[in-house]
Amino acid sequence: MPVSDDDSALAAEYVLGALDRSERRDAQNRIATDPAFAAEVAAWEARLDPLLDRVAPQTPPAHGWAALETRLFAPPDDPRPRSAWAWLGIASGLSTALLAAVLWLGEPMQRAQGPLWISDLVSDDGSVRLAALYDAARGEMRVSVGGDAPAPDRDFELWMIAGGGAPVSLGVMPHTGSAAMAIPEDLRAEMVGATLAITEEPAGGAPGGQATGPVVATALLRRI
Amino acid sequence: MPEIPTEDLSNLLARIALRDRAAFRALYDATAPKLFAICLRLLRDRREAEDALQEVFVKIWHRADRFASGVSRPSAWLNAVARNHAIDRLRQIRSPHTDLDIAHGFADPSSGPEALAINSDDGRRIDDCMGRLAPERAEAIRLAYVEGESYLDLSERYQVPLNTLRTWLRRGLLQLRDCLGPAS
C-alpha cells in the first residue's frame, strides 16, 4: 500500500535519524501500529543503506565477543535453581512430590492450579539429568537441567512423543539451571501421558525440526 | 573488507532465529567491524560505541526471526538495527551536538568521504542520485544519516531556521526517492 508523500518524508526523516527525541518516539509508535508506514520505513532503510558503503569497518573491541557471550548465554546469576538441582543430585531417589516442590522453588509466588505432571530423565550413565514439571492448567512446563554439558557446539533438545507420532521439539535446553516454557496450545492435549526424550543436537537445535542426534534419556510424563 | 554474500548472511540469520550459537558467532565475526564502525561514527565515543555494539548484537540475537529475507537485504537490516540503536542512544545522551570538534574525541583516519570506494551497483546509483540534488541538501542528508546530526545541529550548521531546513531536507529526500526508483 503506497503512503502519502508526507508519510514517506516522515519515514525518511525517521530513518535519517534527524527527528528529535519525542518525534522519534511518535514515529516508533507509528511503526508498531501502522504496517504501511512500517513498510515505508523499511523501504527507506534499504534506499539509504548504500550511503554506509563508505564507512570503513573498524576493529571491534577485543573483549567484545566474550562479553556478549557471557551476557546472553551465561547461567543465570540467581543461585536458587542451581542449588536446588545440587540438592536433587545428592538426594537421588527423592519422592516425586518433593521433586515438584524443588522445581517450584525458583518462583515461590506461583501456585499450580491444576494437575501436575512430572518427568525425571536420567541418562544411562547418570551424567545428564533433566527434571520436568508440567502444569496442565497453565500449559507451562518448568525444567531443571544438571550434570554434564553437551559436547562443544552441541545442545540438548527436549522432545515430546505422543501416541506413536513423530517426536515434536519442545525446544533447546539450557546447559544448566532451570527454565520455564509455554507449551503451544495445540500440543497441550497430547502432553498428558506423553514420553519426553532428550537428544544431543547441533548447537541451536535439530535442523529442520527432526531429531538427528543420539538419544540421551527418555521418560514418561506421569501425573502426581 | 570483502563483502559477505547476501545468501550467507540470510542463512546465518535464519540459523540464529533457531538459536544456533555457532551461526551467531560467525555473524558476529563477519559483521561486527562494520556495525562497530557505524556506531562509532554516530556516537563519536569509543566507550559508547562499544556498549552500543553489544546491545545491537543482543537485539540481533533476539530479533533474527523478524528478518524477512524476501523483503530486505540482510546487510541493510543489520545496519538498520545498529543505526536505530545508536541514534536512540544519541538522542538520549546528547541533544544537540555541542562543539563538533571537541565532541569527536577521536580521529577516524578513514572517515573522509572518498576513503572507501563505492563497491556496489546500489552505491553507484545512490551516488548518482545524490549528485542530482543541490549540493548542500545532499551533504545534509549524509551528515544526518552517517554522522547522526539532528535537524537542530543542521539548522545551526547552515544558519537557517529549523522549519526552513526541514522543508528543504524533506523535499530533497523525496527527490532522492523518486530518482532511486523502486527498491531493487
From TrEMBL, chain A:
Keyword Amino-acid biosynthesis (UniProt): no
Organism: Salipiger aestuarii
Keywords: Cell membrane, Membrane, Transmembrane, Transmembrane helix
Localization terms from the record: Cell membrane; Membrane
The name this protein goes by in its record: Regulator of SigK
Keyword DNA repair among UniProt keywords: no
GO-annotated biological processes: regulation of translation
Transmembrane annotation, as ranges: 84-105
GO MF, one example: sigma factor antagonist activity
GO CC terms, sorted: plasma membrane
Residues covered by the Anti-sigma K factor RskA C-terminal domain: 96-215
Membrane topology, from the record: Single-pass membrane protein
TrEMBL record, chain B:
Any GO molecular function: DNA binding
GO biological process: DNA-templated transcription initiation
Keywords: Sigma factor, Transcription, Transcription regulation
Domain RNA polymerase sigma factor 70 region 4 type: 124-176
Record carries keyword Transcription: yes
Domain RNA polymerase sigma-70 region stretches: 27-92
InterPro entries in the cross-refs: RNA_pol_sigma-70-like (IPR039425), RNA_pol_sigma-70_dom (IPR014284), RNA_pol_sigma70_r2 (IPR007627), RNA_pol_sigma70_r4_t2 (IPR013249), RNA_pol_sigma_r2 (IPR013325), RNA_pol_sigma_r3/r4-like (IPR013324), WH-like_DNA-bd_sf (IPR036388)
Family membership noted in the UniProt record: Belongs to the sigma-70 factor family. ECF subfamily.
NCBIfam families listed in its UniProt record: sigma70-ECF
Protein name (Swiss-Prot/TrEMBL): RNA polymerase sigma-70 factor (ECF subfamily)
